[in-house]
Amino acid sequence: MARMTSDLRNYTIVTGNYWAFTLTDGALRMLVLLHFYNLGYSAFEIAMLFLFYEVFGIVTNAVGGWLGARIGVNRTMQIGTALQIVSLALLLAPAAWLTVPYVMAAQALSGIAKDLNKMSAKSSVKLVAGEGALFKWVAILTGSKNALKGVGFFLGGFLLAVWGFHGALWAMIALLSVGLAVTLTLPNSLGVVKGKPGFGQIFSNTPAINWLSAARFFLFGARDVWFVVGLPVYLHSVLGWGFAEVGGFMALWVIGYGIVQAATPGLWRRPGHSPGRCAVVMGALVLAAIPVAMAWALGEGYDPATIVIGGLALFGVVFALNSSIHSYLILAYAEGDKVAMKVGFYYMANAGGRLAGTVLSGLAYTVWGLEGCLIASTLLLLAAAGLSFGLPASSSQPTQS
Q1: Is-contact 143 18, C-beta < 8 A?
Q2: In this structure, is the dihedral angle defined by the CA atoms of residues 343, 344, 348 and 353, taken in order, positive or negative?
Q3: pLDDT confidence of 184, banded at 50, 70, 90?
Q4: Which of 71, 213, 335, 372 is most buried, taking the most CB atoms under 10 A from its CB?
Q5: Which residues are CB-contacts of 200 (< 8 A; sequence separation ≥ 6)?
Q6: Could you tell me the domains of the chain?
Q7: What is the chain's Cα-based Rg?
Q8: Which residues lie below 8 Å from residue 93, measured CB to CB, with a gap of 6+?
Q9: What CA–CA distance (Å, rounded) separates 199 from 201?
Q10: CA 79, 81, 87 angle in degrees (round to 5)?
């Protein structure tokens, strides 16, 4: 009972800090996107502002998993939260300082912070949850995080409209400071691997993790290729929505997406049988049909608001189911006390997909519009489905090669 109480306490602290961080991460994304679009930046230039955010996310997931295994995932979480506070503070600089290179550097720091925090939180779930509860606990953590990221999108647009750029930044710094203070009560040894692993061990020697990581790259690239830059710019410039409307709509989408993620274990129709290869492949194929159908409908001249809102809602439900199963499988495949390194490797691929999607989103929208972004999304999803055939049929822990 004492162990269960301690595990629940640690899970609550980890989740609470992750929630606070996620609110600021979503708000910051919307804040930067809308503020700099309003200053006259093009869609491609805005995408470039997030370039280092994603690039350093790739590096951070690799190094962060190894670092977490050596010093504990609680410490890497605290480092990530502190770095996010610094990245927000950098944006408080005078307007003349906010050049593209300066903002890219601040976003790079934010990318490091975000992926340290996410890797730490996801690894902690594996360490405190029993095997029977793993699917449920990771779904709750991931789903609630994404729901709050949606709230963060709304918060960013709302605070920009009400308090302005600097006022929004100060509010987020205050929230993160509280979260950081609470994590200082976590045990120092959480996630530390016996024997201090070498840096070379960050690369997975488990084929299932490699296949899943490759599929994850294309899955998240397919989401971000139209969601990150193309969609909000389209809503503002083509449909004529205001900043608060854009932030609010995207917030509702991510909140709904998070709710579906958290509910995925309850929606799973095969009690006693955890999802595996078939669920991942079929999910990606079903998802691929949605953006191509949207692109066709827009090309045929159907009402764009109806197509975008309806299509995005459907895409969100199916994507959430896919993402939740992915998040469960990486923890199911990861071995015991080395979970931080395996999760770090997996989310390195995740960050790579987001980077590719972000750059392609700005480029495709600039050249081909939203329809081009949607076609690119379909192609990336077909690649994710093909790679998922390499996964084992069940989610039982695979053998290393």
Answers
A1: no
A2: positive
A3: confident
A4: 213
A5: none
A6: 2-388 (1.20.1250.20)
A7: 20
A8: 102
A9: 5
A10: 100
Please count the CA atoms within 13 angstroms of the CA of 273 that sit on its side-chain side.
9
CA gap 337, 350 in Å, rounded: 22
Q: Decide: helix, strand or coil at residue 99.
A: coil
Contact of 257 with 319, CB cutoff 8 Å? yes
User: Which amino acid is located at 21 in the chain?
Assistant: F
Contact predicate 223/373, CB 8 Å: no
Give the contacts of 333 (CB within 8 A, at least 6 positions apart). 206, 208, 209, 212, 342, 395, 397, 398
Six-digit token string for 235: 């809503």
Q: Which of 114, 110, 44 is nearest to 77 (CA)?
A: 114
Find the angle CA(364)-CA(367)-CA(369) to the nearest 5 degrees.
70
Predicted confidence at residue 298, as pLDDT, reads 93
Cβ atoms < 10 Å from Cβ of 325: 22
Q: Which of 302, 305, 299 is nearest to 374 (CA)?
A: 299
Place of tokens 């990771």: 138
Q: How far is the C-alpha of 156 from the C-alpha of 169, rounded, in Å?
A: 9
Q: Are 194 and 335 within 8 A, CB to CB?
A: no
* CB proximity list for 27: less than 8 A, separation 6 or greater: 152, 153, 155, 156, 159, 168, 172
Place of tokens 């930044």: 169
Distance of alpha carbon 96 from alpha carbon 158, whole angstroms:
24
Report the C-alpha gap between 46 and 26 in whole angstroms: 16
Residue 350's pLDDT is 80
Per-residue pLDDT reduced to its tens digit, 66-99: 676 667 777 888 888 899 999 999 988 887 787 7
Please give the span between the terminal C-alpha atoms of the chain, in angstroms, as a whole number. 38
Identify each DSSP E strand in 109-250 by its residue range. none
Say what the pLDDT of residue 135 is.
Answer: 65
d(CA 81, CA 176): 7
d(CA 158, CA 170): 14
- Residue at token pair 């491609």: 44
**CA nearest to 168, candidates 53, 89, 228:** 89
Strands in 312-353 per DSSP E? none
Cα gap 148→142, rounded to integer Å: 10
